[in-house]
Write a structure and sequence with these properties.
By secondary structure, the chain is an alpha/beta fold. It contains 11 helices and 7 strands. Its EC number is 2.8.2.-.
Length: about 270
């Protein structure tokens, strides 16, 4: 029989009603930097039933070995019960955002076993246009030092004015390494899919989420959530044709023409 009980939130010392017959669902967003994961997470967090806790494993200490990774995961998935990040609703999904270069690949066996044991649902978020991802990576790396926004570095912005300022920097891409770099990106995505193939998972692409709002409804269904309109204040930084965003466009265009990556030259996202 479903019943209500009160769970004391340690941080705020307030009572929270929770439906005991509707357990919290755990999830993890597995992605690469500059693939739309920050934007996607803000969309999820706009849902009243979702608490996604960011890049927990950006802190090296939390991923130094398999034991520290699993201990950190236990801490993250207990947050719903132990601190004020909880959302006061009966249905809930608790998760985190995890970049592939933050210990995930090194400890994939232990993590996959943990996900299956704890019934963690995995959301893979990739970017189809890897050339645009490369532009975003290089520009973001440059701004860490240049700090174009009044001496402040921002990986994500909330206004068109800020986006315009950041997008004025046009990175130069090493065309001699470009094909190998794109292949490496593809292989890394394929490898993580192989490692976590036996988990309950869903594969998403940034471009599809942008073009098709129904994709967000499918995500909510995957997480067992009631459908709500999801929103984000984040503004896309690099808009328009790539020819206007890359300093050595002619070299890049020549390198990719006639290859399997030629479509990257024209794609909007």
């Amino acid at each position: 029989m479903c019943f209500l009980y009160k769970d004391l939130l340690i941080a705020l010392f307030i009572a929270r009603n929770e439906c005991a017959c509707n357990p919290v669902l755990f999830f993890a967003i597995l992605s690469n930097q500059r693939s739309g994961s920050g934007w996607f997470e803000t969309l999820l967090n706009s849902h009243i039933n979702v608490s996604s806790n960011g890049e927990i494993f950006s802190v090296i200490e939390r991923r130094k070995n398999a034991s520290s990774v699993l201990l950190t995961l236990d801490t993250v998935y207990n947050l719903d019960w132990l601190n004020s990040a909880s959302k006061n609703e009966c249905s809930a999904a608790i998760g985190l955002k995890w970049m592939l270069n933050q210990g995930l690949m090194e400890h994939h066996k232990e993590i996959a076993e943990y996900f299956n044991r704890k019934r963690v649902s995995v959301i893979f978020l990739f970017r189809r246009n890897l050339l645009r991802r490369m532009v975003s990576l290089l520009a973001n790396s440059y701004d860490r030092y240049a700090k174009l926004l009044n001496g402040t570095h921002k990986s994500h912005v909330h206004s068109a004015e800020e986006a315009d300022i950041l997008s004025k920097y046009k990175p130069t891409i090493d065309s001699t390494l470009l094909l190998d770099d794109l292949k490496d990106m593809e292989m890394r995505a394929a490898k993580v899919l192989e490692y976590f193939n036996n988990t309950r998972h869903k594969i998403l692409y940034y471009e599809d989420l942008v073009r098709n709002p129904n994709k967000l409804k499918h995500v909510q269904e995957f997480l067992g959530l009631p459908r709500l309109e999801l929103t984000s204040r984040q503004v896309k930084i690099h808009r328009g044709p790539l020819s206007e965003l890359i300093q050595n466009w002619d070299d890049v265009n020549k390198t990719l023409k006639g290859t399997v990556y030629e479509s990257f030259l024209e794609a909007d996202y």
